[in-house]
Amino acid sequence: MVDYGVKAINSDTTSLEKMVIKVGIVGGTGYTGVELLRILAVHPEVSVSCITSRSEAGMPVADMYPNLRGHYDLAFSEPDVAVLGACDLVFFATPHGVAMRMVPELMSAGVRVVDLSADFRLKDLDVWASWYGMAHESPEWAENAVYGLPEVVRDEIRTAQLVANPGCYPTAVQLGFLPLLEQGLVDPARLIADAKSGASGAGRQGKIGMLHGEIGESFKAYGASGHRHLPEIRQGLSGAAGGDVGVTFVPHLIPMIRGIEATLYAELKNPADFDRLQTLFEERFADEPFVDVMPFGSHPETRSVRGANQCRMALHRQEHSNIVIVSSVIDNLVKGAAGQAVQNMNIMFGLKETMGLEAPALLP
């Protein structure tokens, strides 16, 4: 095991109410980076001390993101481990391959980290290398990182120094399947996740295939023969099931900016269990502030979670069928990324879990 050497921070809530968590963000020009800034701008216990970008170093944050005018006087800066090492917590909102190179030095400095990239999500590093095309450079920390899905491992997150923030599709898919697999009610070898995401899920890079003229008035599947989130989904669902699972995952691109809808299918072992599924889901998530189980037969909409750290779901059954259908929606940039990262930070520092995340979704 790694000797965390975490900076001395009083986890007593009363003491934390009198302190400010000094936060750094590595990779601040992407959509998840600006979403972190938006959420943290109104967080009462956080001070963002630095935000890095190699390509935009020196540019004021508010010049790139005018919605943050009046909230931040910071400019983007080059990543500097010495500066980041003075933080209490650092968020990585970077492409894969960046965090694994910088995290060991921050760990040695006692900094706590929430990594929004994929660098520390998978425990099988051979699988990680096969999907990401490079060898993992921090295997010891990959082994010790906590996969930060709060609804499953909240207690482990509390004491973690390094949290791997879940991906967007895996969050929506895992939360929808969890109660069924935890109770052993469905065939774990026959799971299907049919998911759709808005364009922001592809990031902020200029890609011809993501131009409005290319995706507008169109709808397509992608990664049908294999997507990087598949092994993450499989790993999480296997943990819930207590053994191997067989899952077919197909993502789709839809012409909107934010949002994921995952339609999930599983075969009940005993059809009589249908009658208790609604109660099962409601009880499983009764104490989860960011999971909303709607009435049976409802159809959650992505707009109902836009800008909110919320997963909203509903159960369905078609006539004369043993298939359970779960519709699960999240905002891919919030519960699927930055919001969940702040939720994890709150847990790590003993704060109220909902702090800074209480705002309802944006409608219309």
From TrEMBL:
Functional pathway: Amino-acid biosynthesis; L-arginine biosynthesis; N(2)-acetyl-L-ornithine from L-glutamate: step 3/4
Segments passing through the bilayer: none
Subcellular location: Cytoplasm
SMART domains found in the cross-reference section: Semialdhyde_dh
The reaction(s) this protein catalyses: N-acetyl-L-glutamate 5-semialdehyde + phosphate + NADP(+) = N-acetyl-L-glutamyl 5-phosphate + NADPH + H(+)
Cellular component, GO annotation: cytoplasm
PROSITE patterns to which the protein is assigned, alphabetical: ARGC
Keyword hit for Cytoplasm: yes
UniProt-listed GO biological process terms: L-arginine biosynthetic process
Keyword NADP listed: yes
Domain Semialdehyde dehydrogenase NAD-binding: residue ranges: 22-160
Keyword set, alphabetical order: Amino-acid biosynthesis, Arginine biosynthesis, Cytoplasm, NADP, Oxidoreductase
Record-listed E.C. numbers: 1.2.1.38
Active site location: C168
One term of GO molecular function: NADP+ binding
PANTHER family: N-ACETYL-GAMMA-GLUTAMYL-PHOSPHATE REDUCTASE, CHLOROPLASTIC-RELATED, N-ACETYL-GAMMA-GLUTAMYL-PHOSPHATE REDUCTASE, CHLOROPLASTIC-RELATED-RELATED
General function of this protein: Catalyzes the NADPH-dependent reduction of N-acetyl-5-glutamyl phosphate to yield N-acetyl-L-glutamate 5-semialdehyde.
Family that this chain belongs to: Belongs to the NAGSA dehydrogenase family. Type 1 subfamily.
Name of the featured protein: N-acetyl-gamma-glutamyl-phosphate reductase
Organism: Marinobacter salsuginis
Lineage: Bacteria, Pseudomonadati, Pseudomonadota, Gammaproteobacteria, Pseudomonadales
Underlying gene: argC
